[in-house]
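Table S2 (text version). Query chain:
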Amino acid sequence: MAKVTLIFKLPYYTEWGQSLIIAGSAPALGSWNVKQGLALSPVHEGNALVWCGQVSVPAVFTCEYSYHVVDDHKNVLRREAGEKKKLVVPEGVKDGDVVEVRDWWQDASEALFLRSAFKNVIFSATDNAKRQLQSPSLSKTLDPEDIVVQFIISCPRLAAGST
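Corresponding structure-token output:
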């Protein structure tokens, strides 16, 4: 069976005694068991601290994974926010090839728009035609320097008077 080497690289700064582990759906990444996941090692690339790790997998390989900050005993201190990352080894990769995966840590602020409040309510297409501008505060006279940001939120699943 053809094998390829996956090299993961993630720029991320940790505190002393912390390290990064990739846990994923495949046995090579611990089958979601963080303590058996792929441990990464820190490398300085210029001014950046980049965590790197490599693992050998079949040339036809697909999985989901996420990054975890752990202590010396592999206890999870922080998980990457947002949806799990998906990896599919590209077609045409041959036995012995190397595939480099360069990632970015997903902060909670980036994951905010993936939460159900945004996906099911704010970005929902229901009742778009019924939405109207209903803000008495906008009826005042504005100075040319004023910036107005208005959110019109439709919450069709909430009963009238709910908060």
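Notes on Table S2: Residues 116-122 form the longest helix (7 residues). The domain at 3-123 is CATH 2.60.40.10 (Immunoglobulin-like).
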